[in-house]
Amino acid sequence: MLRIAKIHHITRLLNAPVIRTSLVNIANDGYDSRLGCKIAFINRNYCSSRKGDGEKVGDESIKSHPQSKPCESQDPVKLKECQPVSIHPCKPPPPGFPTKIPSVKQCSTPNMMSEMPEPTCPFDEEDGKRRASYRKLFLLGLLFTAITLGTVWNLGMFDYHEENIRNKKEKPKSDNKRKQRQKRAIIKDPPTSKEIPSNVPYLLIGGGTASFAAFRAIKSSDPTAKVLVVTNESFFPYMRPPLSKEIWFNDDPEAVKKLIFKQWNGSERSLFYEPDDFYTKCQELMENPNGGVAVARGWQVIEVDVIAKKAILEDGYAIHYDKCLLATGATPRLSPIFEVAVADEKIAEKVKLFRNIYDFEECMEAYNQSKTIAIVGGGFLGSELACAMARRDKKKTKTIYQLFREGGNMGKILPEYLSYWTTEKVKAEGVTVMPKTEVIGVKNDGKGLELELSNNKKLHVDFVLVAIGVEPNTELAEKSDLEVDPELGGYLVNTELQARSDLYIAGDAACFYDARLGRRRVEHHDHAVVTGRLAGENMTGGRKPYLHQSMFWSDLGPDVGFEAIGVVDSSLPTVAVFAKATGRDHPQAVVTQEKEGLRSNTEEIPQECDKYASEEKRTELEEARKQSSEPNKAEGEDFGKGVIFYLRNDIVVGIVLWNVFNRMSVARQVLKDQRKYEDLNEVAKLFNIHEDDMSEAAASE
Ligand SMILES: Cc1cc2nc3c(=O)[nH]c(=O)nc-3n(C[C@H](O)[C@H](O)[C@H](O)COP(=O)(O)OP(=O)(O)OC[C@H]3O[C@@H](n4cnc5c(N)ncnc54)[C@H](O)[C@@H]3O)c2cc1C
């Protein structure tokens, strides 16, 4: 493996401009283009590339010169524009090389090179001596380069250790990312693009949650609308959250195969938003008087022509639209260390990413065949999957490692004490958690992978699941002239989610302006639902701004979960209030009726918040709060349930409801009202987190 990395680095080094120039020079028989005879050198390459002269071209930059068009015309009149080019080389030409380059006779366009001044470096003896000294210089340079490379190699600086790679700030290559993720064949339906309508009123690119919410909104304002969804996945639209949670808890293998999961309350549900027969066939969409929603599956859009209002598929087929939504979501990324390591196919087979149904199926298969698994990443996805895998292993025959840079699970979101507490919970599920640990080397050890860790330990695992974050899918931006936010990523949109006329963006791929919290990009289910819905409404004539605060949630199994809203970042100061959890304070207690919603109770009207609780109620709650545990509990104590407020400039900008459910509307109102630090005593009461304590106490009396 080290060899591969070394070769990789050497290839890159050889491509470095200085070394490349030197090598080109050496390849050109010691000739140095930087020493005054550049034009002759260029001409030599250029002219010898012309049709018919039989010599190969060596210089890429010349080939790509915009003026260098192929010489095809036989028209003698045009020859006037193409003067023969001759060169005056600065050294005797090698044997067999003509001192005069053959005339460029077959140009249909003027040869720009012929208009360049002729070189003024006549060959003489002085020049010969000078060239001999240049050659010496070159050989010295070459020797120096070789020695430097050798030293660097010996020092191990080409080895792909995390630190080195990170320091170089390499951008992950999306090519590898994609290769890595397309192990299972994509099924195209319809199989040929001709069967996809070429002209539709509504085109939705991407078949995820945002698109699903958009077509529901379009159909509800325009019931006979004809909506075409194009997705590069083989599946009809489905929800992703259960893939890292509930589905791992289903013991019925047949149900798992059919992608059926049990909600925490035990009721069964399909991962797919709608059954297959809900959708109209692509071939029938335009003829159907009642309209419908058709999904072209397995088809990739590679460009949107925003002026001509058409999307181009991978085979060049064009789909014209009246209104278009781009909801292309995001793709998980590898850390640089794995990015390099997966160049080795044997390693690549054992490094997994997790985003879609295929990823789930692959991971489940690998999980069933493995004894040791490492999950890299301490965020939602890594923590959820670690807990789910450990729980699933009822006989405790597997070792599940979870390793990450931070001090505790979800350390980027939760305040330190709560993050540490969560780590204890994750450990209690049977996960071997390794905080403050990074992978710094990856080797194929024959049976699996050997991970070299930053704590000087080595870990043998059967496979690794990398869950360190995602990148928005904005590949269409360049060809489609769309703007991407340089810092946050995602297509830039206005508050109506428009990127250009009749082109909308929603979900993970949108970078939107939040009037209260500034420019943001959000990678959560509820945000995809809300932005998809809003885009759909605006595509059918609405002109609504995006003012809604979406929420997100994470469940570490049926017992511990949280919901959050706004800017939830552990680097912000926080204030929290906690209480003892009761039998009702866990994710299992939360079920929603909304089809696309899962836990997405986005349109709820604040109830508990009714400006606000009565004086009597407040006193009662205040009393209860005093008697029970106060925010700053000692480490190790039970943070059963609570509310955590995140402050920026003393204003509440984010809230986590820790094992507190059905209070999101209150939290939303608090953010909307821009409540301040000094209000928090009052604000905390609105969440009634002690209510259940009191009712339980009353019941037991
Ligand atoms: C395992 C998992 C668990 C999660 N759990 C939670 C959770 O508990 N809570 C929460 O709030 N959020 C959760 N999320 C995040 C949430 O699922 C996403 O934020 C949401 O799916 C985003 O929806 P979207 O429509 O923007 O993108 P996606 O759902 O990613 O859909 C985008 C679709 O577009 C397709 N596509 C991309 N480019 C093209 C193209 N050029 N042509 C055609 N098709 C294209 C993609 O393949 C994909 O099918 C989870 C995500 C995952 C993966």
From TrEMBL:
<dbReference type="GO" id="GO:0005739">
    <property type="term" value="C:mitochondrion"/>
</dbReference>
<dbReference type="InterPro" id="IPR050446">
    <property type="entry name" value="FAD-oxidoreductase/Apoptosis"/>
</dbReference>
<feature type="transmembrane region" description="Helical">
    <location>
        <begin position="137"/>
        <end position="158"/>
    </location>
</feature>
<dbReference type="GO" id="GO:0006915">
    <property type="term" value="P:apoptotic process"/>
</dbReference>
<keyword id="KW-0812">Transmembrane</keyword>
<dbReference type="InterPro" id="IPR029324">
    <property type="entry name" value="AIF_C"/>
</dbReference>
<feature type="region of interest" description="Disordered">
    <location>
        <begin position="51"/>
        <end position="75"/>
    </location>
</feature>
<dbReference type="InterPro" id="IPR023753">
    <property type="entry name" value="FAD/NAD-binding_dom"/>
</dbReference>
<keyword id="KW-0560">Oxidoreductase</keyword>
<feature type="compositionally biased region" description="Basic and acidic residues">
    <location>
        <begin position="168"/>
        <end position="177"/>
    </location>
</feature>
<keyword id="KW-0520">NAD</keyword>
<dbReference type="GO" id="GO:0071949">
    <property type="term" value="F:FAD binding"/>
</dbReference>
<feature type="domain" description="FAD/NAD(P)-binding">
    <location>
        <begin position="203"/>
        <end position="531"/>
    </location>
</feature>
<dbReference type="InterPro" id="IPR036188">
    <property type="entry name" value="FAD/NAD-bd_sf"/>
</dbReference>
<keyword id="KW-0053">Apoptosis</keyword>
<dbReference type="Pfam" id="PF14721">
    <property type="entry name" value="AIF_C"/>
</dbReference>
<keyword id="KW-0809">Transit peptide</keyword>
<feature type="domain" description="Mitochondrial apoptosis-inducing factor C-terminal">
    <location>
        <begin position="535"/>
        <end position="673"/>
    </location>
</feature>
<feature type="region of interest" description="Disordered">
    <location>
        <begin position="594"/>
        <end position="635"/>
    </location>
</feature>
<comment type="similarity">
    <text>Belongs to the FAD-dependent oxidoreductase family.</text>
</comment>
<dbReference type="Pfam" id="PF07992">
    <property type="entry name" value="Pyr_redox_2"/>
</dbReference>
<dbReference type="GO" id="GO:0033108">
    <property type="term" value="P:mitochondrial respiratory chain complex assembly"/>
</dbReference>
<keyword id="KW-1133">Transmembrane helix</keyword>
<dbReference type="GO" id="GO:0016174">
    <property type="term" value="F:NAD(P)H oxidase H2O2-forming activity"/>
</dbReference>
<keyword id="KW-0472">Membrane</keyword>
<keyword id="KW-0274">FAD</keyword>
<feature type="compositionally biased region" description="Basic and acidic residues">
    <location>
        <begin position="51"/>
        <end position="63"/>
    </location>
</feature>
<keyword id="KW-0285">Flavoprotein</keyword>
<protein>
    <recommendedName>
        <fullName>Apoptosis-inducing factor 1, mitochondrial</fullName>
    </recommendedName>
</protein>
<dbReference type="GO" id="GO:0046983">
    <property type="term" value="F:protein dimerization activity"/>
</dbReference>
<feature type="region of interest" description="Disordered">
    <location>
        <begin position="168"/>
        <end position="191"/>
    </location>
</feature>
<dbReference type="InterPro" id="IPR016156">
    <property type="entry name" value="FAD/NAD-linked_Rdtase_dimer_sf"/>
</dbReference>
<keyword id="KW-0496">Mitochondrion</keyword>
